[in-house]
Design goal:
By secondary structure, the chain is an alpha/beta fold. 26% of the residues lie in helices and 22% in strands.
Length: 213
């Protein structure tokens, strides 16, 4: 019987090809694992952020409740810094801590007197609400959308007003509180509520709501 002899130059070529294929397959598997891990991380971050946004509703409700108790008095004509309320909207305000050439006012979300920022004005936020089951820390600040404190009817003042009509308004996307005033023909000042939420994995969310009374 004649034996088939493989040339010496081809000996071991099959092993080399097999090793190359294994390396390529290993790299493909590694890339797949990393892609899956990245997808899970992105989905996880999105879930944490969505949870923080939903938790902000508690802060909005607390701010609305605080405003509702004072809407018919004179307390809202002046700053109530301890409660995170300001009767005017300052110029150069940065709500998120980002800075530019016009920034002069920050919100003290961390209750450290804006220690990490070089600012002219550091406004206090409300006292932190009790943490929810997920560990979210919630605080808010309220700005009356006026140029200065005091009566919105003062000559030196200028406010963003909601003009209601008899029987209500056709405008949508706005919140109005105070049933006794809802059907009156009058102008009401807008208040902007900004809620800051910090949750697990240092997730941070900001949610704003405009209300008028």
């Amino acid at each position: 019987m004649t034996k088939l002899r493989i040339p010496s130059a081809h000996r071991g070529a099959g092993l080399v090809v097999a090793l190359v294929v294994m390396v390529v397959m290993s790299l493909g598997a590694l890339a797949l694992v990393r892609a899956v891990a990245t997808g899970l991380l992105v989905a996880s971050n999105a879930a944490f952020r969505q949870a923080a946004v939903l938790a902000a509703e508690t802060g909005s409700e607390a701010a609305v409740d605080w405003l509702s108790q004072r809407a018919d008095g004179v307390d809202l004509l002046s700053d109530q810094a301890a409660a995170g309320y300001y009767a005017s909207l300052p110029t150069g305000l940065s709500l998120t801590g980002q800075r530019d050439a016009n920034t002069s006012t920050y919100i003290d979300w961390d209750d450290d007197q804006c220690a990490n920022q070089s600012v002219t004005i550091c406004q206090s936020a409300s006292t932190a609400l009790p943490q929810d089951a997920a560990g979210h820390q919630i605080r808010y600040v309220i700005h009356r959308l006026c140029r200065v404190a005091g009566s919105p009817d003062a000559a030196a003042n200028s406010c963003l007003l909601f003009r209601s009509t008899q029987g209500g308004s056709s405008n949508r996307g706005q919140l109005s509180y105070g049933a006794s005033k809802r059907l009156q023909t009058s102008d009401s000042v807008y208040y902007r509520i900004t809620v800051h939420v910090r949750g697990p994995r240092n997730t941070t969310a900001y949610v704003q709501t405009l209300v008028h009374y």
